[in-house]
Amino acid sequence: MGKGKIAETLCRAGLHLGVTTVGQILKEEPQSDPGDATTCTRVVTAKYPNHVWHVDLTAVPTSVDFWAPWLTFPLPQCWPFCWWVAVVIDHHSRRVMGIETFRNNPTAVSVSHFLECAIHTASVTPKYIICDKGQQFWCSVFKDWCDHHGITPRFGAVGQHGSIALIERFILSLKNGCTRIILVPLRRDPLHQELTFFSNWYNQSRPHSALHGKTSYEMYHEISPACERPRVEPRLRWPRSSPCASPHAPIAGHCGAPIRLDVRYHMGRKHLPIVALSRAA
């Protein structure tokens, strides 16, 4: 609504405000609830791998889907109409630390067990876990589990920078790059296999703009990124001392060498490409 429409609506409800007053109120910062003392406004910044983890849930429709044209009511969000997928990622490196599927909306006990497995696999316990205020997280079971492991839970807000936007972005990549491309199976094992394939490709082969072109694997293990290795220069007359696209890398071999683009696919999945360059004979 515009300022005038808001003023007219409030007037009908009994509050008479001028259009200018409404405009001034809209410019003010939103006030938080003073009674909610459990939510901390300090932003947690990941300083090293496994410092901060993010965890979230999402529903992935199966081939049956959520709706049917001959029904006048929505279908329940459970198997066989959808799978529930739990994901945990490392904030510092964007590395997928674990992914699991559930037939129904998982309970706090199921989510805690999933995180327990992720911690066991990584052989490390994060200092913070950031999540939303879903029923699985905003409860005594999950908070007690965090307290038992010495983890500080932090509850973010949708749209807040540095909050849960990072894992929401991964979930969008997961759906656009995997579950919306394949025919989501009704069996759990084949689906978990496809999600694992995507997670491995995401960790090892997908560059991240926020990491300056590094992959999650390179950032997590602190190894030299492939984007900083000596580059191929296909232009014959390009001066060797001239800068290249960021990040700067020296030229390998002679300028103007013919090259060949090699594309293979992770586990044979056409939606998970791995690109490499080689010098043509």
Give the terminus-to-terminus CA distance: 65 Å
Order of helices and strands: HHEEEHEHEHHHEE
The number of distinct helices, counting runs of at least 4 residues, comes to: 7
What is the strand tally?
7
How is the main sheet built?
A: 5 strands, mixed
CATH architecture of the largest domain: 2-Layer Sandwich
Helix share bin? 25-40%
Strand content: 15-25%
Structural category: alpha/beta
CATH homologous superfamily grouping of the largest domain: Ribonuclease H-like superfamily/Ribonuclease H
Overall form: globular
Strand order within the widest beta sheet? 3-2-1-4-5
Report the CATH topology name of the largest domain.
Nucleotidyltransferase, domain 5
Give the quaternary arrangement of the chains: single chain
Give the low-confidence spans.
33-40
Polypeptide structure, described:
The chain is an alpha/beta fold and 281 residues long. The chain folds into two domains: 170 residues, Nucleotidyltransferase, domain 5 (2-Layer Sandwich), CATH 3.30.420; 51 residues, no CATH class. Helix content is 29%, strand content 17%. The chain contains seven helices and seven strands; from the N terminus they run ααβββαβαβαααββ. A five-stranded mixed β-sheet has the order 3-2-1-4-5, sandwiched between helices. It has a two-stranded antiparallel ribbon with strand order 6-7. A hairpin with a 5-residue loop joins β2 and β3. The chain is globular, with a radius of gyration of 24 Å.
